[in-house]
Specification:
The complex is a heterodimer of chains A (574) and B (353). Chain A is α/β, with parallel strands linked by helices. Chain A has four domains: 11-96, ATPase, nucleotide binding domain (Nucleotidyltransferase, domain 5, 2-Layer Sandwich); 102-240, Rossmann fold (3-Layer(aba) Sandwich), CATH 3.40.50; 262-459, 2-Layer Sandwich (Nucleotidyltransferase, domain 5), CATH 3.30.420.40; 464-574, no CATH class. Chain A contains 17 helices and 24 strands. In chain A, β1 (11-16) and β2 (20-29) form a beta hairpin. Chain B has three domains: 3-15 and 143-276, Glucose Oxidase, domain 1, CATH 3.50.30; 47-118, OB fold (Dihydrolipoamide Acetyltransferase, E2P); 289-350, SH3 type barrels, CATH 2.30.30. Chain B has helices at residues 54-57, 63-69, 195-203, 219-224, 242-249; strands at residues 3-4, 8-19, 25-26, 33-34, 39-53, 77-78, 83-86, 94-96, 101-107, 110-123, 128-134, 138-149, 152-153, 157-161, 186-192, 208-214, 229-235, 255-259, 272-276, 287-288, 295-298, 307-313, 318-319, 325-326, 328-333, 338-342, 346-350. In chain B, a hairpin with a 5-residue loop joins β23 (318-319) and β24. The two termini of chain B are 18 Å apart. Classes of the chains: A alpha/beta (574), B mainly beta (353).
Chain lengths: 574, 353
Amino acid sequence: MATLLTEVNSVLGIEIGTINTRAVLFDVVEESYQFIAAGIAPTTCGEPQFDAMPGVISAIQKLQDITGRFLLDLNQKLIIPSHGGVEGVDKLLLTLSYGPDLDVATFGLLNDISLEAANRLARTAPVRIVDCFGINDRRSFQHQMDALLKARPNVLIFAGGSDRGATKSIMRMAQWIASALQIIPAEDRPKFLYCGNRSMSRRVKELMEKVTSVQITNNIRPEIETEDLNQASLDLSQLIVKEKIDNTNGLERIATYCSDKPMLTGNAMQRVVRFLGKQYDPAHGVLSIDLGSAHTTVAYATSTKSSFFSLPIGSGFGLENALKQSRIADFEKWLPEVLPESQVATYLWQKTLFPASLPVTQDDLNIELALAHHLIIMAMRELENRQELRSRNFEPILVGGSALTHTATPWQTLMALLNGIQPVGITPLVMDKHGILSLLGAAGRTNSLMPVQVLESTAFINLATVVTVHSKARPGTAILNARLQTQSGKVVETTLEQGNMARLPLAFGESGLLFLDPLKKIMIADIEIGKEPIRVKGGVCGLVFDARGRPLLLPADGELRRNLFWKWSNQITE
Amino acid sequence: MQYPVTQINPHVKFRRNRILPISGTVLVRVGQKVSPSEILAESSVPTRHILIDVFRALALKNMMEAEKVINRQVGELLETHDIIAETGGLFSRVIRTPMPGKVVSIKNGQVLLEVESRKVVVQSGLNGQVVEILQDRGAVVETSGTLIQGVWGNGAIGYGPFVTDPAGIEKELTSAALNITARGAVVAASWCESEESLLMAAELPLGGLILGSMSPRLIPYALKQNFPVILLEGFGRIPINEEAKLALLENMQREISLNAQKRDPYSGTHPEISISLPEESAPEKTSCELQTGQKVRVHTSTQTGQTGVLTALNPGKTSLPNGIKTDSASILFKNNEKAIVPLSNFDIIQVEN
């Protein structure tokens, strides 16, 4: 029998993705919140039904079938609040990633400062930046106006001025935006988000309200040296959520049942990562990568700062964008078998037409895994470009998206993550198999207990703990003896060679003590390698050692490269 | 659970909404017969403006003074050298329009002229009859006949007589196969792998091109063409599926309309081939439950482009050759081969009305 921790016990989370809708049930078991089960059904927001409701009901019905708990009444209405803890739920949450990207135009004063900050803010949401305007724009006023009218954005983001900074330039720019908007028919005008100098908020609002709907948020650059996107990102996401609710049948009905405002999946995910960033070792960062069908979302946080962005590249709906930014060779180089370039290109382009399709043959699966490798590399490149990444020393790395959590085997996912992210130090890799990370973020707004307790449970699957060993020894030289003593007292050993990988068995849920005996001069990030053992946690793939070097350099010769892939794959699966 | 039905239907009655992206003028009326290229509604989008700063140009003391000397109203159409502002007095100074335009705003001593605009139109895309007017936005067109939905289109609209014979529709499109008799006509072929063939088709030019598939390398070439290109199966070397082939060949020499609009799952638009026929048909069914006996077409992996009949919805999860476990169905293909195909890898192409 569930024990009442707060007035809310059972929580149903709905995540409406581009391909699938998930219904996830959390409840109190033995005095703490636990993930109970998830039901998945195809999203029905698009053709042929153009209504989110059937997909949501179908996902809840699947959840009912799994749990045996009635969540819907005879009229298929959600039972909320619950009846005696056996029927229905106490709380409903909704996160959204479905829907076409909105077009955004950004405005700022200085290109390198406020305009760049406005662009970074825009990239925290699933939007397309269609044009950018700064005071140093070389285009004439007329050309800028023509460009804005041509771009026809849905949202304008205006940043500029620190809180005690520029005022005249802000008003001048606001005036030209207002003039330009007046030319557009009232019903087609974009919404306006102001995130500049707070002392100008009232005047900007008064001016812009005459022409369009206005949202004022925190200054994203309150001081010249400080950038804070958090509140503005949430406000931008709420603006986008509203747009999605207005333009997708059924969402309004679901939202009325929700105990809290629906959130964008990415923002909800970031909330959890920021929380985790404060809990873990401040020297390391927490990294989360969600490889979705339409977007690849990355959140990174340390105890003091965080970074978050959503790239319009993905394994299905976002694949066309990924292909346009890449060469086929970028995917091909990760294939473990020789496949003609035309076969790779044809498979990937066909997938752009049928984003929900599944790979059937081993060749198809290899291409999809090569795609996953490249998407992770693109995401990491973007994270590095932001210059907020202290190092690739992460603890932990959380990974989501069905391309990695459902399509691939744990070993394939592990290799894609190691090759794509190339972490250093000792890194726990954690898989969000049930797609619950964002729902925990959404829950955390009003119930901080639930995400904490579920994160500590077995709802997330530890894929492996990876020890990355750096050495300048020649390839093939033995560099480290590693001995693992498991909780049960079992002792296993391995010798790691430079350029290779190795594995020791340590099951998911188990922990052990790792004794390292260097045979050559080695480094494991900032870890002091001495006589003291290191406590490590097990995973589906066990404890994995990676001595392939950073950055990972692959031979240009295809055959040599493929041989290496086979060798490494055998070393971690043996 | 409702699944979308891809129309490969020789006899069907269907309606299509044709809508402008912005408000405009509707040019047709209910009951009017329309051809594929007929413009149903049009609008104008301003593309170029010039700003005339009266305050600065005349070196006036304040904005009030500037507003006084501007003797034009918003909405006025001006010709080149028309006077916009005039100081008056003995030594009057004037500002004239540098080119024809429309006054769209007068503010802060500045006059904004719209000097160029682009026409935006929405075409019918099919032979049919207007059955409803969508105020200021467009119209609904209805027709009966053959409807075949494609999976990729290059964005163009066109029409012409369908001239491909049963032998030609089985072959690859080569430049040698395109001769002067194909000028203005709609041609179908199994696939296309060379840009020369597309360039030859453009030189004639064709009225439209229907392909089973094409090399993804040709996407940029196909997008540049003014005539419509529609792929029925996708990318690679996949011939036109049997059902579509039969439906096309039934309509030899008939006028065929191609609306090669981009496929958009969010809005539900598909590239479409339509042939208006005089007889009445049953209305289009756009979705249905998955059931045995339905005609389906595989779109991914080894059997891509093959059509068959759904013989069973398999219980539980099926293990695919690569180890993935998923929901699947059994399909009996036309050549009597059977296969187990993931539910996400085929579409329903025909249902009993």
